[in-house]
Amino acid sequence: MSELMLDGNAAAGVLQEIFAVEMTTAVGTCDHCGAAGEVGRVQLYRGAGIALRCPSCEALLMKIVTSGTRAWVDLRGLRTLQLDA
Amino acid sequence: MRSETSRTKTIAFDVPGWPGHRAGQHVDVRLTAEDGYQAQRSYSIASASDNARLELTVERLDDGEVSPYLTEELRLGDAIELRGPVGGYFVWDPSAQGSVLLVGGGSGVVPLMAMARQRSADGSTIPTRLLYSARAWEDVIYRDELEQLGQDDGLDVIYTLTRTQPAGWQGYDRRVDRDLLAEVAPAPAELAVAFVCGPTPFVEAVAGALVELGHEPLRVKTERFGPTGG
Q1: Residue B19: its chain A contacts at CB < 8 A?
Q2: What is the ipTM of this complex?
Q3: Is B86 left (phi over 0), alpha (psi -120 to 50) or beta?
Q4: Which end of chain A is more exposed for a tag (fewer CB within 10 A), N or C?
Q5: Would residue B93 count as lying in a domain?
Q6: How many domains, chain B?
């Protein structure tokens, strides 16, 4: 456990800005281990951007880097994302 | 604005067009300096939902970028940039079936206070227990109001003071551990949901102990504060 770890809740604002819907209750499935869970539960680390990691296997799920006018979102670690339709 | 403790202050904002919020949600506060430099932090909303106003309780971190401004520099009538309400995961559910456990460490009590206030505003009778860990009695935020909520609304408030205790203190005097939670938490079959908020090591310890006691991990919702907040 790292003291620098937060949870997916902390990304609620930036995710809402990018996806325009509430994302912390969306359910993501980890492409590495197959564990599924709400985005609010995942591990979150801040550096130059935000890294979201699987709480089960710690594989990288999503990376987000924002500048003032653009956002880069890497979703390679997510197999699926289920949202309220 | 009102001082809660020597390090925390509650600031009320009038927000035209505020859509209301769910207890437990937060806002992102963005400050922009004259040279364009921006700093942004998330703060839990402390107040129950209201269509024109919201309150934040901010702890001053001496090496922080945003909290010293909010607690020391901000003046009545100043405008700041808020984004929110955000978050849908760590929120009070007024239809919860069973008992609710709220566990707060330090200023982690803030979103839990919003839940306690919302519960009271709704006239809810959901059995709710708040376990609040603070270093000392002087550091306990919302002391008087929590006493009121305990008397009027059946909110069960339990304190543990981990560093110093007033003379004659009858409550707990140690960090929240498995044995303490075994005494305070509802039985796993009765628990609808537990909300745990505080610094990351506190949240890890509490959430881990709850799971060890047999609580379903999905019923234990956490919100961690980092050491680099503020």
Answers
A1: none
A2: 0.88
A3: beta
A4: C
A5: no
A6: 2
Digit-coded pLDDT (tens) for A16-33: 999 999 999 999 999 999
The answer as to whether B220 is a domain residue is yes
What is this structure's pTM?
Answer: 0.93
The alpha carbon of residue B63 is apart from the nearest alpha carbon of chain A, in Å, by 16
Over residues B46-75, the mean pLDDT reads 92
> What is the span of the domain harbouring residue B159?
99-225
Where does chain B have alpha helices with state H?
67-68, 109-122, 143-153, 178-184, 200-212
**Structural tokens at position B227:** 């050491």
Could you tell me if B35 lies within 8 Å of chain A, comparing CB atoms? no
CATH number where B18 lies: 2.40.30.10
Cross-strand bridge partners of residue A46: A50
Decide if A5 contacts B20 (C-beta within 8 A): no
Q: Does A1 touch chain B (CB under 8 A)?
A: yes
Is some CB atom of chain A closer than 8 A to the CB atom of B90?
yes
Angle subtended at Cα A26 by Cα B55 and Cα A70, rounded to the nearest 5 degrees: 75
From CA B13, how far away is CA B159, in angstroms rounded?
A: 29
